[in-house]
Design goal:
By secondary structure, this protein is of the alpha+beta class. It has a domain of about 60 residues. The chain has two helices and five strands; from the N terminus they run αβββββα. Strands 1, 2, 3, 4 and 5 form a five-stranded antiparallel sheet that branches. A hairpin with a 2-residue loop joins strand 4 and strand 5.
Length: about 110
């Protein structure tokens, strides 16, 4: 092969790789939901908060003004607080009346 052909093959390969990379990056990715489910450890009430408005965990309860809201999810029919927030939950002390500190299961409010 002549050096001119080798150069053309290399340029074609680089161009194809660039197009492939561009197409790969252009594919839509999974988007996180705008709202996050929270539970109040003091009242047992659940809330949906806008992801952009949450600045700290525990988050501020809009009704009581206290920082007692923790992200939660349902697993096998049980409402749970994420284990990554167990330390913050322990910091509530007596204010926590609805989340079991060991299992992180939420007891339903009365």
């Amino acid at each position: 092969m002549s050096s001119q052909r080798i150069k053309l093959v290399v340029v074609a390969i680089v161009a194809l790789a660039a197009v492939g990379l561009a197409l790969h990056r252009a594919q839509p990715r999974g988007r996180l939901p705008d709202d996050i489910n929270f539970v109040c450890a003091a009242t047992g009430q659940t809330y949906k908060l806008d992801r952009d408005e949450v600045t700290r965990i525990p988050a501020r309860n809009p009704k009581t003004g206290e920082y007692t809201l923790f992200p939660c999810y349902v697993s096998e029919g049980v409402l749970l607080v994420s284990s990554r927030h167990a330390g913050g939950l322990a910091g509530l002390g007596e204010k926590n009346r609805y989340v079991d500190p060991e299992t992180l299961a939420v007891r339903p409010p009365p």
